[in-house]
Automatic annotation (TrEMBL):
This is TonB-dependent receptor. It comes from Flagellimonas aquimarina. Its main location: membrane. The keyword Signal applies. Belongs to the TonB-dependent receptor family. Keywords: Cell outer membrane, Membrane, Receptor, Signal, TonB box, Transmembrane, Transmembrane beta strand, Transport. It is a multi-pass membrane protein. Residues 119-222 form the TonB-dependent receptor plug domain. It holds the Pfam family TonB_dep_Rec_b-barrel. It comes from the Bacteria. One of its GO terms (cellular component) is cell outer membrane. GO terms for biological process: siderophore transmembrane transport.
């Protein structure tokens, strides 16, 4: 009897086994088989990798509907549904296509023309919208905190305005572009990175080091180019909304609309609101500035019979932000009873590109922006208007081994404010000419040379040359050397809001001269593809920048003043930086970066570290997808080494140097529903804030108008029983955000 039951069980098992099914096939690209490609069935544990000949087989499948997914570094993900019956063997061949996310994606920023990243003589870092999603933020300004060598710097504890530091250089040395147009500068430097709808961003390109030869005087330390989507790549509709535990709300909506047969319209709206008054550090000042912001963006793409470029785009931006004492309301704006900093910003921009209808590659580009700011810092009013127009024509021409670029540009600057530094409106036209030649010396070697000529009626003739050398050791190894010069004219109050906040007096010691710089950058790029599907990418650089006539705020000579003058000496920024990109066959991904830098100023033989500049920077991004659950985990973070801080004299009890600090985040994203993504997590897991280890952050927060501060005949603060540390009101002691740990939850909906 037992033997009969055993035989019966075996027969049943065999019958059931015979009903199990198999899917098999070959993975290839353009007819070439691809080995070691990950192949799996969505929502199951069934998966494998192709063998050396690109073949795969998944067995023991129950009858039903499945979704086949194939993925590999450098290729677009493959998805296809199929039905399989009992005991059936299905043949499903997979054809993969190259992905724009590979290391050879197209870039335009380094040379003003679209080239493969691997072929560019200028090293360019590229970040896709998928990078921004790993740690969702309400603006690109905050999103850049996870880019190695790039740091968003908050410049004021009250208004929370800031700028972008690249390789330790102050924000005004970074030029921000939208679609290659320099429309974010001066007043817009503080606000230009806010409110750009993430749904319409194609990629962000970053060049570290001077790019003045192609982009003008503000690209001294580097540039950030935000490239918006081309209509065919944009989703039909996109919506992304999230809320944090602090009450921050962000809404991002985008859409693509066909207007007739030859016109596509991209629309984008970003709305951000934060209206919770929070004071966790107990100084009676808002820890985070309250904000109400809206940005509207539209881009028209016109289809031409000859496939030449023709596009027009526009953006409108409005923001109302304020921070200050908790009792502040708009009725106290500009008064001396309750301290508050209130900023109304209105800005609009237009930009366009038109490729001439001729055989040669000639492109006409233009942009214009109008920026109005109405702000008060306590009882100090700052009213400013800025208008910038820009027109440029480029001719891209190849002759033999020469890849030539000729260009002519004209820039119109108008700036006026109510500060003592602006006696009358500043209005200037700056015409420019530039030429660039990339010469291929051999199959693996090329050199690039360029020079730009600008005429500024205030400073005369300006020449900014640059040179680059590229050695393509192999398809997976590239070595680059870049050298260039920079020239920059300073608009003091538009770039440094510390000059307006607090109670320090602003002293302009002399007529400010333009700043000049010389930079050298070495870069090595390496790609490694292992047989088991592992990918390793290494991008390492060494940099050196020497400044003359640099203008820096002097907080040390007199604690009651900010003194601005040209440095009688030199300023040097030098360091090394590296990024490592690691992708394992199981789907685990690592992006780790580190930078060591030494930024110092030397005057009268004395060398001192530059204020608010870190020594070390670390960033990381770890991602893993649990395929059976359609769940992705992202762990992101950064680490910053000590930086010198602006204290108010020897009696100031606050630390002269910041500690080494880190902000870390975790996020879970669920993609199990068609067209929907649900995400949530925790920001600032370590609950780090700058007040740790400090008795206070804002000096004399209880007396913001210095009504009870006593001064001696020389203007120095006198220590009293009410003011034992001899301080004045000062919110400029800031080096990181005041927001502690907080949760967030969001939803994305996309229709392609």
């Amino acid at each position: 009897m037992k033997r009969f039951l055993l035989i019966f069980t075996l027969l049943c098992s065999l019958a059931i086994w015979s009903q199990n099914s198999t899917v098999q096939g070959t993975v290839s690209e353009n007819g070439q088989s691809l080995p070691f490609i990950n192949v799996y069935l969505k929502g199951t544990q069934n998966g494998t990798a192709t063998d050396e000949d690109g073949n795969y087989s998944i067995t023991n499948l129950s009858p039903g509907n499945y979704v086949m997914i194939a993925s590999a570094i450098g290729y677009e993900p493959f998805r296809k549904s199929f039905l399989i019956g009992k005991g059936e063997s299905v043949k499903l061949d997979i054809e993969l296509t190259q992905s724009a996310e590979a290391l050879d994606e197209m870039v335009v920023t380094g040379t003003l023309k679209a080239v493969s990243r691997l072929e560019s003589a200028v090293p360019v870092e590229v970040y896709k919208p998928s990078f921004l999603k790993k740690n969702p933020t309400p603006s690109i300004f905050e999103a850049l905190q996870n880019v190695n060598g790039v740091r968003p710097q908050i410049n004021c504890n009250v208004c929370n305005t800031g700028d972008i530091h690249i390789n330790g250089l102050e924000g005004p040395y970074t030029l921000v572009l939208i679609d290659g147009m320099p429309i974010v500068s001066g007043l817009g430097t503080v606000y230009g990175l806010s409110g750009i709808p993430n749904s319409l961003i194609e990629q962000i390109e970053i060049v570290k080091g001077p790019a003045s030869t192609l982009y003008g005087s503000e690209a001294v330390g580097g540039l950030i180019n935000i490239i918006t989507k081309h209509a065919p790549n944009a989703p039909e509709f996109f919506a992304d909304a999230y809320l944090t535990g602090w009450g921050e709300y962000n809404l991002d909506v985008g859409s693509k609309i066909e207007v007739g047969k030859k016109t596509d319209l991209l629309l984008g709206v970003n709305y951000f609101n934060y209206d919770e008054i929070i004071d966790n550090n107990g100084d009676n000042f808002t820890d985070l500035t309250l904000q109400d912001r809206i940005s509207l963006f539209q881009k028209w793409n016109f289809k031409r019979d000859d496939a030449k470029v023709f596009s027009l785009a526009g953006r409108f931006f409005y923001e109302d932000r304020w921070g200050g004492e908790l009792q502040w309301t708009p009725e106290f704006r500009g008064g001396d009873e309750i301290y508050g900093e209130s900023i109304y910003t209105r800005r609009w921009e237009i930009l366009g590109k038109y490729q001439l209808p001729i055989d040669e590659k000639v492109l006409l580009s233009m942009s214009y922006n109008d920026h109005n700011q109405n702000s008060v810092y306590g009882d100090v009013t700052y009213l400013a208007d800025q208008r910038i127009g820009f027109g440029q024509m480029t001719w891209d021409k190849s002759v033999g081994n020469h890849d030539l670029l000729f260009g002519s540009a004209i820039r119109y600057n108008y700036y006026d404010d109510n500060t003592p530094a602006t006696q009358s409106a500043d209005e200037v036209w700056i015409p420019s000419l530039f030429v660039q030649d990339e010469l291929k010396l051999a199959k693996k070697h090329s050199i690039l040379g360029g020079i730009r000529y600008d005429y500024d009626q205030r400073h005369g003739n300006i020449f900014t040359p640059r040179a680059a050398y590229k050695w393509k050791i192999s398809d997976n190894d590239i070595f680059r050397v870049n050298a260039g010069t920079g020239f920059r004219v300073v608009n003091l109050f538009t770039e440094d809001h510390a000059a307006l906040t607090g109670s320090r007096d602003v002293i302009i010691a002399e007529e400010l001269k333009p700043e000049r710089s010389v930079n050298v950058n070495l870069n090595y790029l390496k790609k490694i593809y292992a047989d088991n599907g592992t990918f390793v990418g290494i991008d390492a650089s060494a940099f050196y920048t020497h400044f003359s006539n640099i203008i820096l705020p002097d907080y040390d000579t007199n604690p009651n003043q900010i003194i601005y003058d040209n440095l009688d000496g030199k300023s040097v920024s030098k360091g090394v930086s590296a990024n490592i990109d690691l992708v394992l066959p199981n789907g685990l991904k690592f992006l780790v970066g580190a930078t060591w830098q030494d930024v110092s100023n030397t005057e009268n033989g004395v060398t001192q570290r530059q204020i608010l500049t870190e020594s070390i920077t670390g960033t990381w991004n770890v991602s893993y997808t649990i395929r059976s659950l359609d769940l992705t985990l992202d762990y992101t973070g950064n680490l910053y080494g000590p930086m010198r801080l602006p204290t108010l004299g020897e009696l100031d009890p606050r630390q002269d140097f910041s500690p080494t600090w880190s902000i870390q985040n975790i996020q879970f994203t669920y993609k199990g529903l068609d067209k929907f993504e649900f995400y949530g997590g925790v920001k600032n897991l370590l609950d780090w804030t700058p007040n740790r280890g400090n008795p206070f952050i804002i000096a004399r927060a209880d007396d913001p108008f210095d009504q009870n501060v006593q001064f001696d005949p020389q203007g120095n603060v006198v220590a009293t029983a009410d003011n034992p540390f001899a301080l004045t009101f000062d919110p400029s002691y800031v080096y990181g955000p005041n927001q502690g740990i907080r949760g967030f939850f969001g939803l994305r909906y996309t229709v392609f």
